[in-house]
Structures are given as C-alpha cells and as structure tokens.
Amino acid sequence: MLASLVSLSDRELVDSLDRVAERDRATNAEIIAHLVLIEDRRIHLDWGYPSLFVYCTERLRFSEDCAYKRIQTARAAARSPEILEYLEGGELTLSTIKLLAPHVDKPEGPELVEIARGMSKREVERLVAARFPEASRPRGPSLRVRAIDGENFKLEMTVDGDFLALLERAVDLDRHRNPEGDRVRILREGLELQVAAAEKRKFKATDKPRPPKPGETRSVPAEVRRRVHLRDEGRCIFIGKDGRRCDATSFIEHDHVKTRAQGGKHTVENGRELCSRHNGRSAELALGKERIERAKVREARRRDAQAALRTSGFSAVEARDATAHAESRLPENAPLEELLRQALARLGSRIDTGKGRPARAVYPTEPPPGSGGCSEPGHFWVGRALPASSLNP
Ligand SMILES: [Zn+2]
Question: How many angstroms separate the alpha carbon of residue 47 from the centre of ligand 1?
Fold first, then answer.
C-alpha cells in the first residue's frame, strides 16, 4: 500500500488523505448505523453473542475501547439520529458523543448536542460538567486490573473507610491462623466463601444430593437444577445461527428448552443453562415479544401487590399466596387496585387464627372506630393489632 503512495507529490498526498479521512468518517457513521439496527433486532444474540460488546470485539475485531465508544454512539444515535449526520460531517467525534450520550434523553439533550457541534473533547467535557455538575463528579469505589506478567496482576482499588475497617477486622479475627495478616489471603478466602454460597444459592450445589420429589412442583427441583449445572458447567449453551456457542459465564439462569407455558417439564433433559440475554431472547422467540411484554407487566404488578401487602404487615408467604389466588380469579390485565382488593379479601377471610398470633384485619373502606387506623375513602386499611373478636360484632 505504501508503495502506491510513494510516487505522489506532497499536494497529492494531502488531498488524498483528505479524501480517505472523509471516507473514514462516512464508514464510521455507516458502521454505527448498522449497530443501531443489529442491537434493535437483537441480531447479535441470534448469532450466539452474549452482548453487542462481544459481537464487536470478537466478530468485527474492534479494539475494546473502539467497541465501547461505537456502542455508546449507536445507543445515543438510536435516540437522536442527527448524531450520525454530525459524526459523518466531522462535527462530532466518538469521544465527544461518548460524553454527550448519557444526556441525550434529558430535556436539554437536543440543545446540548447542537452546542457541542465542532467542539473539542475538552470543550465538551467542560460543557457537560457545567450543565450537569453532579454527573461529572468522580464515582465512588472503583477497581482496575493491570497485567504484570503472564501470571500476576496488579489490582488497584479505591475503597471507602468502611471497607478498610471490614478488612482490618477480618485480619484481626484471623490472626491465629494468619499471623502476618496477609490481606491477599484474607480477600481470597472471603471470595471463596462468597462463590461457594452463591453456587449453593444459584445452582443448588451440594455434597449430599437428595432425589427429587415425585410429581411436578412449581419451581425447578434443586436436584434438576444441580444436575443441569454440572452438565452445562455454568456456561450459556445457546448456539447462534452460524454455529457460535455463546459460552458466557455471567448472569447464568436455568431455562426450559420447551417452555413451561408450552407444557415443558422440570427435567434434566428439558433444562439448560443460558445467560440472561439468551434466556430472554429464547422466551421472546418461543412465545412472541408481545406475550413476554405482557408477562413483564404482570410480574411488575405482582411485585407491587406483594410489596404493598408486606408493608401492611403480612408475611412474604401470605403476600405471595394471596396475590397468586387473586391473579387466578382476575383477568390478565386487571389493575393493581383490583388485584389488591381480591388479595386482601382472601387474607381477610383468614383472620383470627386464635393461635397466639396477632389477628390481622382488612377493612374495605374505614377502620373500626377507636382502632387508631387511618384510611382514605376508597382505600384499604390493614391492621394487625386488633383482637379478632372485634371484627365480628
Ligand atoms: Zn448466552
């Protein structure tokens, strides 16, 4: 390539580079426009990549820094398409867009983008800091890893006083085993404990497996979960359209090959481990985007109802059962208020256990006189201190 340029005069070289740089800006904008659509259609997931970042670094061979900036730019461009035009014209760069990206959705976003046209990175930094001083402050604790040689790494952490106090306390408590107070050893052992606990919680890891209970249960039996984890090794097994296996190891979830909604069972054969992105994408493909969206709305409503019941003094189990009962009796799109009304009616009918636990009462409109409760018209009042006898005069 160099050989073809050697014969050019200085003027020709300058003109040629101008044209190449212009082409480069156009190509860059074109790449980002592609990324906007790839992400919107989740194509990177369908091709077996756990994230757009991995797609960019592995398939497109962008450097990590370049992938990060282009993805930030694509996300900003999805919300403010004029950014692509300014990028192509050289009025904004990947670096200035990166600074603007967190703010394009804000009311002052469009104005900010207009002002930033033609500015250098430093100038945009100052512009953003002046408009959003809060967002520009350095964040709290952070961590940096640098490779020293093939086997050793230097870890740099910014921590707060509480973290340091916790570390010193751990050193003190462990002095008899660790007289030198080796802090790396303490941190490593702490992490090992943390990983063991998380594996137990997530994958039901155990030294003493128990056979699963016969019959179908609501949640995945621990033994099924554990055996699927041993088989899939905590890696996403999703295979993309041209055969790439995702292999992600974070955000791993248990998934049903044939979904529960389609009659799939809790068996090892019907189980698999997927990263949360591919789990979500598989559900979308199996059940349709709309159905997944509806399920998300239902889930949010369920959480809100349970939280309201918990705040009112009901236990987690009571809140969960009453909400499930109410859901089974109401249409899918019933409002939260209706769901709560049904759940409370259910809980209200179970008042007075007479077994030493305080009775809980539910009043559809007003608390009984003298009960000390408060309510607004049309709202519920829930209390737990009243004797059950006062409810059935
Ligand atoms: Zn995956």
Answer: 10
